[in-house]
Write a structure and sequence with these properties.
Layout lengths: L3 H6 L2 E3 L3 E4 L3 E11 L9 E7 L3 E2 H7 L4 E3 L1 E7 L5 E6 L6 E6 L5 E7 L5 E7 L2 E6 L4 E5 L5 E4 L9
Antiparallel strand pairs: 1-6, 2-3, 2-10, 3-4, 3-5, 7-8, 8-9, 9-10, 11-12, 12-13, 13-14
């Protein structure tokens, strides 16, 4: 069985709603939305992220090894410490991912969502990295603690 790093090198990630942190910690997540007509930027939807109890990579893969999805990188952002943040999409049109690697492309952290749509833009502001979905909300990654939150307000310029 191929390991996570080998799968990443082959252009694959675990295609489930999860966030992965080293050393092998998996946190199931859900990105949901509710109607909010005041948020025209996000097409009248307010997005939120919820989390479930953590598990390990070994426990997750022990339950089912048929969890892998091909991913396509849409954008990369090189950080001053040599790390790289990447974003893109999975095999289905509704899937998106965000990943952070070290300078040698070893996977350190990732988020995969089956509901976020592809992630298409990245920008850094201090210790925060904003990654925009095609739904126009942003997942914000805190580089200091790998925590994430969702911002529904416009972060990127309308015209790219």
């Amino acid at each position: 069985m191929k390991g996570l790093q080998e799968r990443w090198s082959d252009g694959q990630l675990i295609g489930l709603d999860i966030m992965y942190r080293q050393p092998g910690v998996i946190e199931p997540i859900a990105i949901d939305s509710i109607e909010n007509t005041e948020l025209t930027h996000t097409y009248g939807r307010a997005y939120s992220l919820s989390r479930e109890a953590k598990t390990t990579l070994g426990e997750l893969l022990g339950e089912d090894d048929d969890v892998w999805a091909q991913v396509q990188v849409n954008h990369k952002l090189s950080l001053s410490n040599g790390q790289v943040v990447l974003c893109g999409e999975g095999e289905m049109g509704n899937e998106g991912f965000i990943a952070r690697t070290d300078a040698r492309n070893h996977l350190e952290w990732f988020l995969f969502s089956t509901t976020a749509n592809p992630f298409v833009a990245i920008k850094q502001e201090g210790d925060l990295v904003y990654v925009q979905s095609t739904h126009n909300f942003c997942v914000v990654l805190n580089l200091l603690d790998d925590d994430v939150l969702i911002v529904n307000e416009s972060v990127f310029q309308a015209a790219r």
